Amino acid sequence: MRGVRGGLRREEDHFRGRAMTQLFTRLRRPKGLSALLSGAIALAAASCGQDAATRGDGQSSGVVVTESGGVTTVALGRVENLSPPELTPTLVYSTLQNDIPLFRVTAAILLDGGGAALANSGAREVLLLAADGSLDKRAGGPGEGPGEFGEITTMVKAVDGFLVYDARMGRMNEFTDSGDFVKSWSFGSGSRIVDLKPLARGIDGETLAIVGDSRYFDTEGIRRDTTPLLMFPRPEGEPDTLVLLPAAELSYQEIPGGISTRFNVGFGRDVVAFGREDRAIVGETGSLDLSVYRTDGTRTRRIHGDGGGVTVSADDVSAWRSEQLAEAAGLPPEFVEVVEKVPYNETFPAFETAVLGPGEMVWIALHARPGDETRAWLVIGPDGQLRGRMDLPAGARVLAVGEDRFALVQRDELDVEDFQVHAY
After folding, report:
1. What b-and-e string marks burial along 403-412, b requiring 16 or more CB atoms within 10 Å of the CB?
2. How confident is the model at residue 31, as a pLDDT?
């Protein structure tokens, strides 16, 4: 997605540049199941409660769960040694089945009663689906008025409804469960923070958020900045920084004519930040080490294990490069030449992403090799024990998980989106 030199530094040019620059960083991530994860990793946070008593049957499952100082620590050990039961998803409904066209789905939440709300961001609206998947209501729409949107990036489940963040307008919009607009507000007392991504909101209005990927550098080469996990005690107040997280590994290159572009590094490391109601899970994919925070800034859970370090083969590089060039088809030759030179890491990250569910349930997507059809997800229950493993399409994005159902979006070979809710 990424950038014309100079102009992209200014807030008003940031959004104007998104459409063009999406050509560059929409490079597909590698597909497929992870190979055997091996090698020890350097843990990003200090270990908590390692001398506490083991709870439940953690020893027999290979997972050790301990409690210390109010923090639940889940030690997975070596990921390749885990043998969780297979979980089988069952499709409940999909937008394709119900003839509901989608345009760039960016977020979703599961609603009480079996329905769902999803951000149909390209159309600048929220779709509310009934328990059978039929379209119940459209909320919002393009514009700058109350309850209208410029660019929907995140959604947060609230006590009596849901919240939708509009990055272009820099404001949070509150809706009831039935999709009626309630109110909106912005964060911070000064000029708004570009590319803010709210994650979770507490009952007293405190909010956790991170800053997204709107960072640009003039110098060529690989750069990896940091992004803060912020806590806003009040929307209009100044935020506190809870922790600094390593952001995405990006390669900056210049195309003749003075155009500076950025690309995701092949098999690169990235930040993980996902919220649910009043909690958020954060980490980075270079090591399997995740932390859950409440909106008051208290850390409540840590999940860590050994993974990553698997060597990227020549076949992996070839398949990954082919995917990039397919994405760049039709671009001018000077752009394609740069795509052919995007750098890559020689080892896979420890995992791909993580999604937070109810009761601090966590789903972890293992990193995958290019070309494979499925990706393995580890499902860790609220008690910290490994509930099972589920194989999902490699290109699918899991947007929300519940106790017995989850939601994902995927594209077919014609780039048609399908939002699906599954039971498991």
Report:
1. eebbbbbbee
2. 32
